[in-house]
Amino acid sequence: MRELTYYVAVSLDGYIAGPHGEFDTFLAQGDHMEPIWARYRGTAPTDLAEAVGFSVADGPFDTVLMGWNTYAVGLPDHHLANPYRHLRQIVFSQAHEAPAGSEGVHFTDADPVETVRALKREDGKGIWLCGGGALAATLADEIDRLALKVNPVLLGAGIPLFAERAYAPRSWRPTSTQTFESGVTFAEYVRA
């Protein structure tokens, strides 16, 4: 069965973006980039990866899931309506329609939990939950792995790793932790 991995950058105080969705304080350069990319190849927008010379082939995922706000980061200023052309892209939204140029991106108002359960039954590689915090909270019981790029910054407020939700505590078992000179700590966990 395929696994769902929540792979995301996060601040020391648990935010994946600032109060207005900004994430520019997360380190995009440093000694952490190549080793993490080697493990999670294909997790950058297609055009960006190609521009910096990172191959998107042979990564651990063939599907990426996003909430609307995560998807909309590339709109309209960045013109990334089809950001991960090398992956099957699913965007969950109740209120938004597909923008121009988004061919290849599947927009749905379907139940995320049922969608993930159906995806897990399919053949293929892993499923990447790219964001955001509200979608992660909805899918908390379906997440099999956490892969966290913990950045040495405090945001103080913003979009939490998991939005508030009434659910029982869940335990995770660490599988690896690596700290880099850049200050980024890369921590991976599986459901205990």
| CATH topology group | Dihydrofolate Reductase, subunit A
Main sheet specs: 8 strands, mixed
User: Can you tell me the overall shape?
Assistant: globular
Series of secondary-structure elements, N-terminal to C-terminal: EEHHEHEEHEHEEEE
Number of strands: 10
Organism: Cellulosimicrobium protaetiae
Domain Bacterial bifunctional deaminase-reductase C-terminal: 4-185
Protein name: Dihydrofolate reductase
Pfam families: RibD_C (PF01872)
Task: Kindly describe this structure.
The chain is α/β, with parallel strands linked by helices. The protein has a single domain (4-191), classed as Dihydrofolate Reductase, subunit A (3-Layer(aba) Sandwich). Helices cover 17% and strands 30% of the residues. The protein has five helices and ten strands, in the order ββααβαββαβαββββ. The strands form two sheets. The protein has an eight-stranded mixed beta sheet with strand order 5-4-3-6-1-7-10-9. A two-stranded antiparallel sheet has the order 2-8. Strand 9 and strand 10 form a beta hairpin. The longest helix has 10 residues, at 112-121. It is globular and about 40 Å long. The two termini are 17 Å apart. 33% of the residues are buried.
Could you provide a short overview of the structure?
The chain contains 5 helices and 10 strands.
Strand and helix map with partners:
Elements: E1 4-11, E2 15-17, H1 33-39, H2 46-51, E3 61-67, H3 68-71, E4 88-92, E5 105-108, H4 112-121, E6 126-131, H5 133-138, E7 145-151, E8 159-160, E9 172-179, E10 185-191
Parallel strand pairs: 1-6, 1-7, 3-4, 3-6, 4-5
Antiparallel strand pairs: 2-8, 7-10, 9-10
